[in-house]
Fold:
Amino acid sequence: MSGVNFTYPIMPETLAQLLAPFYLGICVIIPEFNLAALLLIGNVLYEPRLSLFYPFSLNHINVALLLIHLFVFSRKFRFRKRTLFHMLPFLIFVIYLSINAILYSKYPEYALDKALSLVMMGVLPVVLMAFRIHVTGSAAIRDLLWSMFGISVAMSLMGIVNWLQAPGIYRLAVLGGGPIGLGRIAGTGLIILIYQWYTEIKQNKGQRYLYYGLVSLFVFTLLLTLTKGPLLSAMISILIANRIVHRRWTTKKRILTGAIVLFVTCLVMDTFRQAGNPNIHVWYGSYIIRIEHIIHAFSAFFHHSIFGIGPGNFSDWEPGWLYPHNLVMEILAETGIIGFVLLILVLFPLFHHLFTPKTAEQTTLTALTLFFLLNQMVSSDIIGARFLWFYYYSYMISTDYLGQKADQNPSARKITE
Structure:
């Protein structure tokens, strides 16, 4: 077998132009949908996608609307000390990363892209969610989750249609993105479906059929992307979320059975990948290279322990790689012990309150935070961690701000009941 072409279908420019008015209307009316689309598309500043006409594309609409929504809703919102306090460690981290990039990076353009993307994809969306939660209460969280769910369904269906129409594509991908990106989208939809809908369909037979059909869609998509990171991350996140919901762990027998099934599934996925393209070395790339990344990251850290080697400089320690495909290793190597301590301060509240009782929305946001945190341990860089920061701080704001201020804002009381 000579190998199979590995290509990703990209939305034609004409189709993007036809969809633009409809897309623009939804993004204007539902700010949470605009946020979901912006975060899914990703690196808008230097990687325009879904072209309308050069150099503008659909993702530039998302950025413009984000700024407009921030201006409009900021007029109805006054920052509380608690809201700013929760984001303070992350803001300090972003500032430190920016200063570190200016002082130490040999590739300042790429390094500043990291810092600027953190602001555009991490800080500003969270600020807008704070505005929206203050104005609409729990409705903002529900609108966000269902917007993300709708996009996940559409992308999963589009990926499967691409797969059926082009047999040469042996790994699902959509809109110019990669299989890992689609796997994360499908995992997001699966988690939202389980924790936002399951309790509502127990007594409705028709809805149960639709529910299990959608579960099958997301699981099938996850499997056909042939990416292990999103699949394993989704399963572990669901296991922990079930502990939060039911106040007890799943039985050891079920956990062991699930672990064996996942292990066999991962081996089968690797076998299919290797058979689909003999020119690549799946097992070496999936396991050995990840270990080599960690070794090189530790080596860089030991040589520059305090301030790190500088954002974007990892390629000097491992040629051909921009980052070590592990969020913790990337921060440790590039920003040193100072950046690593700031990361711990950022994430400490998540684990400190992990198993406290939560509403359905809070459980879903926690599961999504864990899902993307685990994904960041095996792939992508700090720019790709935008969902991690966004879901995490949306959860923090919804619980600590609205939960303790419900008596001052009746519309927000719903989120804590």
